[in-house]
Amino acid sequence: MIRLPDGAGGVREYLPRPARALVPVGGALTSRTVFSAAHVVADPYADTTPDGPAAVDWDATLAFRHHLWAQGLGVAEAMDTAQRGMGLDWAGAAELIRRSAAEAKAVGGRIACGVGTDQLAGPADLMVVRKAYEEQLALVEESGAQPILMASRALAAAAESPDDYLDTYTHLLRQAGEPVILHWLGPMFDPALDGYWGSADLDTATDTFLEVIAAHPDKVDGIKVSLLDAQREVDLRRRLPEGVRCYTGDDFHYPELIAGDEQGFSHALLGIFDPLGPLAAEAVRVLDTGDVKGFRAVMDPTVELSRHLFQAPTRFYKTGVVFLAWLAGHQEHFTMVGGLQSARSLPHLARAYELADGLGLFPDPELAESRMRSLLTVYGVSR
Q: What is the rounded distance in angstroms from the CA atom of residue 3 to the CA atom of residue 11?
């Protein structure tokens, strides 16, 4: 029995559950392409400041990627889950891309990496933004990874019309050697991206987004949509050119979006699949057999945890993701680059522990309980 803070100034007792029976890892996933956006592990011994360069524990960071590949999942590298723009600067992201891409090549793991403009220190005009994108695109392609063209704060600040987005992305797609993934990240994940694609009206923005894709469908493998609006994603994927995939980035509605309907389905590129990796792979293997109900039976119970981790302010979901990685034994500490471990309250983390334990996410429940107890002690909660 463990005593957890209840969020109202009191404590409640919780009985951790026994270890969940592990499902043997199978072969490659076949019915859906699934990426987990992966977190980075900070170096807890580094003498850093919240606004200084990120200090990364490379061994633990890369070991976690191998954990995801072993489940049959792809890794979406250097995305917002890796704290791009929230603790991880471009120098750190570039090193992360190089190292992860080399590891992926060594084991035959699938990897796609974020291409942005975060090397820019301040306001920039459109030509400078384009050159920043080109620099990152070249590095990702040289590493052998698939590029993900991420939404850019600098472009959002510099663009004055939808045409500025059309011109920028058209140029980048022409530059790309292989098909890329386009990424539409909503302002709930990054407030600086409000009005992306040239309009705060999502219908107008969608038309511009689709115009980019329609002009170069051969250069677009797919789109990742992170708007937390299931119906909008369904409507958007039905308008995609043939052969262009929709990768759901909706951490609230992913079971029904991946399951799909009579007109299609979404693939996945999700931050929640960082802590849910083994369960997500298990569920998709069930879906590979055509068993939609079985898939939903595994995935639906995970939504409560995901909604909890991604509750507003949504951009701080990374704290819960890293916290669960610590409890699950994937890293030896709960420290984050930029000091972001302080971004969620103790009651929030306690509820995350409870929900994850209930799903059987911890390979060693006793270790998870012990680590939860140690955190409670730091906060002064009596056992």
A: 6
Q: Identify the band that residue 380 occupies on the pLDDT scale cut at 50, 70 and 90.
A: confident
* Cβ-contact 158, 193 below 8 angstroms: no
Note the Cα 325 to chain centre separation in Å.
14
Q: Distance between CA 363 and CA 341 in Å, rounded?
A: 22
Residue 178 and residue 141: Cα distance in Å, rounded? 8
Q: Range with the lowest mean pLDDT among 23-27, 232-236, 306-310?
A: 23-27
pLDDT at 276 over 90: yes
User: What pLDDT score was predicted for residue 9?
Assistant: 81
Preceding omega of 313 cis (within 30 degrees of 0): yes
pLDDT tens for each residue of 332-372:
999 999 999 999 999 999 999 999 999 999 999 999 999 99
The CB-based long-range contact list for 97-103 (8 Å cut-off, 24+ gap) reads 97/139, 97/140, 97/143, 97/145, 98/139, 98/143, 99/58, 99/61, 99/62, 100/62, 100/65, 100/75, 100/145, 101/77, 101/140, 101/143, 101/144, 101/145, 102/143, 103/62, 103/65, 103/66
- To the question of pTM greater than 0.85 for the whole model, the response is yes
Contacts 24+ apart (CB under 8 A), 366-369: 367/327, 367/329, 368/16, 368/327, 368/328, 368/329, 369/2, 369/16
What are the Cα distances from residue 196, in Å, to 33, 118, 158? Answer: 26, 16, 11
Length of the chain: 383
> For residue 341, what is the DSSP state?
G
Stretch 30-56: mean pLDDT: 94
- Residue 24 in this model has a pLDDT that exceeds 70: no
Tokens of 191: 């407030």
Residue holding tokens 């699934």? 34
CA distance 111 to 100: 8
C-alpha to C-alpha distance for 165 and 198, rounded to whole angstroms: 7
The residue written with tokens 């309980």 in the block is 369
| Measured CA distances, 39 to 57, 127, 247, 337, 356 (Å) | 12, 31, 19, 10, 17
